[in-house]
């Protein structure tokens, strides 16, 4: 596989993280476990989804203390989630992330 540019890797990472969230891998610890990315990168990627007009928000779990909860994609904006789902494995491989069980 050919190397991808920094711009591509940033874009692909955002799409792949949005895909993970939409499919139930919806917390920072779950995302770091699925991808191997550092915690801070996962947090920054979730925060940056809005730059693609992907509306992602944190939902606090009722009755839990602190920041216990999960992320939810409310709107994909101009991104077609079906395209992302179809190409998720290619995105994952391009980023060098492990296969998800």
The percentage helix is 40-55%
Strand content: 5-15%
What is the approximate shape? globular
Task: Kindly report the spatial arrangement of strands forming the biggest sheet.
Answer: 1-2
How many helices? The count is 4
Described by strand count, sense and barrel closure, the largest sheet is: 2 strands, antiparallel
Please tell me the overall pLDDT: 93
Q: Which stretches of 5+ consecutive residues score pLDDT under 50?
A: none
State the distance separating the first and last CA atoms: 22 Å
- Our Rg estimate from Cα atoms comes to 13 Å
Q: Let me know the number of strands.
A: 2
Structural class: alpha+beta
Order of helices and strands: HHHEEH
Features:
13% strand, two-stranded antiparallel ribbon, alpha+beta, 101 residues
Describe this structure in words.
The chain is an alpha+beta fold. It is 50% helix and 13% strand. It contains four helices and two strands, in the order H-H-H-E-E-H. The protein has helices spanning 6-22, 28-35, 39-48, 81-95; strands at 55-60, 69-75. It has a two-stranded antiparallel sheet. Helix 1 (6-22) crosses helix 3 (39-48) and helix 1 packs across helix 4. The radius of gyration is 13 Å and the shape is globular. The model has no long low-confidence stretch (mean pLDDT 93).
């Amino acid at each position: 596989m050919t190397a991808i540019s920094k711009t591509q890797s940033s874009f692909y990472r955002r799409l792949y993280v949005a895909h993970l969230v939409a499919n139930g891998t919806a917390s920072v610890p779950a995302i770091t476990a699925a991808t191997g990315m550092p915690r801070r990168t996962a947090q920054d990627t979730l925060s940056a989804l809005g730059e693609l007009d992907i509306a992602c928000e944190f939902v606090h779990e009722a009755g839990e203390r602190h920041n216990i909860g999960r992320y939810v994609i409310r709107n994909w904006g101009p991104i077609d989630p079906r395209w992302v789902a179809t190409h998720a494995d290619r995105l994952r491989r391009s980023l060098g992330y492990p296969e998800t069980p």
